[in-house]
């Protein structure tokens, strides 16, 4: 056994709920899926793991949950090394990957009762109350008696989350939990994630949707081609990245011409909105040039950089969700 008895166990040796150092996975076929990843997930955060499809998110999650062995590097979850201490650590980690495995012919409640019964440490005398509490937390109490086949995809995801919440968890790991959901289902899962985090559970959630991470997460790591591009508090990820100059005008074509003359690069015209890179020169001069050229300027300003701008600035690539 590599475990010290509970009474003599050291306080956590490694900071961060998840911490990886130079974590690398090369698949047998030679594909380098994760390349020297250094990740630090702070306690209590809703941590977004963001990257286009194929950027290595699922592979990382599988290593963190002890499902596959890293090729090299180390990973600690809740302060303990994985996969070595997986048996001690994983009971404190709730996971939802690739959608929950459900029995369609059973009701939502009966599915949870089965999950609970499969856990040898779960006391059968308190099973019903545990299941009811989990159903309540994910807002499925009213639908608990319906067969799982009759559930929408969003309800199935919520039931999966309920299963992950049958025992107290310090960490929840969710792999693309809103994938395939309609906008309403997405909103429900996002608000549920925020709610779960508000009572102290750290949530590590992967997504290929920039907006989603911006709305839902306190911190994020951005991946591209298996490498970490940036990580930190969400509001800070986009600082240091210049926003874009945005001009609103009914004379968009003429405005674009003048802006180009004024040294504004990467111009994009959409309807009555012209945007481009913020030029080096005084913006008052740029505005004056537009007015002098007869452009009717209705709006003129610099928009704060988004996470998408940060991604483009950091990787030199567009954030292509089809990856
Ligand atoms: N079992 C495997 N064997 C070989 N290559 C794999 C395997 N699983 C994933 N890959 C490759 O590793 C790279 C990273 O894949 P991964 O699934 O981790 O990315 P992802 O960011 O989670 O994307 P997605 O959202 O599409 O799952 C991809 O190029 C993928 O084709």
Automatic annotation (TrEMBL):
Record's keyword terms, sorted: ATP-binding, Nucleotide-binding, Transport
Gene3D superfamilies on file: P-loop containing nucleotide triphosphate hydrolases (3.40.50.300)
Name assigned to this protein: ABC transporter ATP-binding protein
GO molecular function: ATP binding
UniProt source species: Streptomyces thermoviolaceus subsp. thermoviolaceus
InterPro entries: AAA+_ATPase, ABC_transporter-like_ATP-bd, ABC_transporter-like_CS, P-loop_NTPase
Pfam families: ABC_tran (PF00005)
PROSITE patterns per the UniProt record, alphabetical: ABC_TRANSPORTER_1, ABC_TRANSPORTER_2
ABC transporter domain mapped to chain residues: 18-250
Family to which the UniProt record says this protein belongs: Belongs to the ABC transporter superfamily.
Domain of life where this protein originates: Bacteria
């Amino acid at each position: 056994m590599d475990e010290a008895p509970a009474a003599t166990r050291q306080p956590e040796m490694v900071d961060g709920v998840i911490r990886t150092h130079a974590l690398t996975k090369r698949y047998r076929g030679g594909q380098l899926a994760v390349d020297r990843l250094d990740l630090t997930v702070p306690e209590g955060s809703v941590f977004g793991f963001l990257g286009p499809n194929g950027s290595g998110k699922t592979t990382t999650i599988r290593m963190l949950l002890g499902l596959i062995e890293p090729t090299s590097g180390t990973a600690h979850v809740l302060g303990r090394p994985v996969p070595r201490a997986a048996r001690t650590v994983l009971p404190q980690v709730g996971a939802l990957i690739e959608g929950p495995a459900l029995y369609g012919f059973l009701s939502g409640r009966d599915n949870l009762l089965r999950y609970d019964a499969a856990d040898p440490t779960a006391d059968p005398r308190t099973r019903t109350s545990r299941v009811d509490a989990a159903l309540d937390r994910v807002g499925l109490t009213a639908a608990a008696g319906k067969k799982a086949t009759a559930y929408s995809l969003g309800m199935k995801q919520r039931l999966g989350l309920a299963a992950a919440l049958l025992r107290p968890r310090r960490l929840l790991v969710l792999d693309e939990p809103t994938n395939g959901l309609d906008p309403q289902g997405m909103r429900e899962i996002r608000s549920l994630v925020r709610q779960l985090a508000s009572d102290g559970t750290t949530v590590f959630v992967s997504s290929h949707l920039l907006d989603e991470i911006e709305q839902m997460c306190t911190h994020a790591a951005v991946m591209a081609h298996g490498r970490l591009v940036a990580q930190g508090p969400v509001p800070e990820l986009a600082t240091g990245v210049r926003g874009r100059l945005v001009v609103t005008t009914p004379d968009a074509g003429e405005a674009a011409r003048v802006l180009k003359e004024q040294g504004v690069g990467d111009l994009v015209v959409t309807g009555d909105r012209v945007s481009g890179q913020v030029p080096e020169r005084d913006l008052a001069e740029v505005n004056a040039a537009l007015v002098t050229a007869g452009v009717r300027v209705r709006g003129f300003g610099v928009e704060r950089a988004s996470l998408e701008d940060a991604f483009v600035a950091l990787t030199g690539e567009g954030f292509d969700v089809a990856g």
